[in-house]
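Input for the complex:
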Amino acid sequence: MNASSIIETVRLTRDYKAVRAVDGLTLSVAAGELFGLVGPDGAGKTTTLRLLAGLLEVSEGEATVLGFDLKEKAESIKSHIGYMAQQFSLYGELSVMENLQFFAELFDVDSKDMAERAERLLTFAGLTEFKERRAVDLSGGMQKKLALACTLIHQPEILLLDEPTTGVDPISRREFWNILTELHLQGTTIIVSTPYMDEADRCSRVGLMYAGKLVECDSPKKIREKLEGDIIEIQPEDWQKSLKTVSGLSGVREAQTYGESIHLLVDSGKRRLPEIKRAMKSSRLKYRSIRIAPARMEEAFISLIRKLEA
Amino acid sequence: MSLNHIWAVTRKEFNHIVRDRSTLILVLFMPTLLLLLMAYALTVDLKHIPIAVLDFDHSQTSQAFIRQITAGQDLDLYASATSMDEINSMMMHGQIKAAIIISPGFAADLQALKGLSIQVIIDGTEPQGGEFAVQHISQRAEEFINGALVSQLRAQGITLDTLQPLDIRMQTWFNPDLKERNALIPGLLSMVLGFPALSVALTLAHEREHGTLEQLLATPIGRAELLLGKIIPYIVVGLINVILIPLLSIAWFHISFNGNFLLFFGLSALFMFAVLSMGMIIGVFMQTQAAALALSFLLIFFPGFFLTGIFFPLVSMPEEARLEAMFLPGTHYAIITRGTFLPGVGLDVLWPYAVMLVILGVAYSAVAALFFKKKLG
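Predicted:
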């Protein structure tokens, strides 16, 4: 066991009636980490977070959060963590301030601290001018930020966030992540699940879940490096014809279009780049540019999943 | 147990009730509407029941008999039939609820004091109307025979003054006019005042469906704190109804309230606690509002109708039903409402029912808290 680890699970398992949602998860998260949990839908991310939040019975295995045994002391964990559910929903009839106050009271924050923190959190979340507005009248992005503020009101040592930015516009998403980065800098331990690979890239460590198991766990950089092969990016003049031509070439594992440019995942960039140029030329297809591009988290992720599915 | 936690939940729930207009209307006025609706629907006096007559006697006596039967507003002569087929057809078409067949020897039999040779047929698909007709016809027939008897006795020189008829002096206590509503409404109160139980049953499922429950479960709030905090606002709203509904009964239906109102209010609070805890058990077990609603009707409202003794006396129920009725707060509360309204009895009579309400309330809330887990799935 790592001395500085704040969350520790050993073969943690959770069964629902017919499925094993989390299957022998062994994970150790150190204090102060910003840990990203990624994986396809149904991989067990939500179940993992709910287990860590003390919301589900453990079927098998061991887990401690802040030294509290999840099986015995789940209730004691709750005052130390801030958990934000995926379908987080606020009390619509309550105002922004009343929502904050409600959670402050449930977490036994005294009223002096509450006033001070509410002020700070509202500024932090950019909600100060909306504090009298009813939650139901806030935009989706503002609701998420209010939800985050509600989970922060008791200054939890650990934040468990389940896909907090799903369905939020890019600007709100960036603002939300700026807040998380700020909290990370202040030393809060954060575990966040996300379907967005650019968000995974902002974590200090990423765990990839697949079919209830943790199949990869490393820094984003290391995970990107695990991508076997390279990305070739083409800006063709006729992308439809070009796509047909290049996607069938040997060594091309995958072809994706981004607007009118084509991204190819190939086994070896060095070897395939000349071949692709030749193929384009012989089909009389012109391109504005063609180059070996750095792999992104998304490609790494997809290729890892493909390999697991095979 | 933290009072702050309970108070936080209570305040939140209050805001929900007050700010969500449909919830507010539901909990505040539904009992009133239910009472009005049921009081009118359930005390309809039977009148103008259509009947047909098939007279084989064709005598003056039989004609007089028919006139006597159909005098007044109770029975209306729909048609004079000429054959059984006609009666059959009218019955089939729902045009008549009962038919009287007068035998050929009707006048002669009466003359010979051999009784009345009539036959009455009723429509069994709507027994109330038919039974009402039978009751009415036998009463009128009796009067008719009496009339015939008297005139025959007179003919033999015996006057009525020398007879000693049976003399029953009947007295009705508590409800001297025997008005049906006087008896019905205090009983109905026990049903309509239990209505907030429905809202309580829905409140947990509502949070489950909206995803707010998951968030609540992730806080350190105790489960008893959460359930209590949720029940309290509905007890308060229920008690507003405990004031409104008797006022309505007194002002609108002119029911007299002879008991002690403070006692009534206190016992009503016990009832609220018991019946709302019952609603909470439903909320704890049901995952969706639709399921909670269906089960509330099954466990609280239908038994409230049939088992609490409002419409059918408890003593005439089979043992199992009576045992089941003991578990319904409404059974005990119906005795309390009836007792405090008309006879105006006090705690010296009502204490066992108050004790039962306390027992049920404590038991039900304990069951709810025990089975409510701060876990998902």
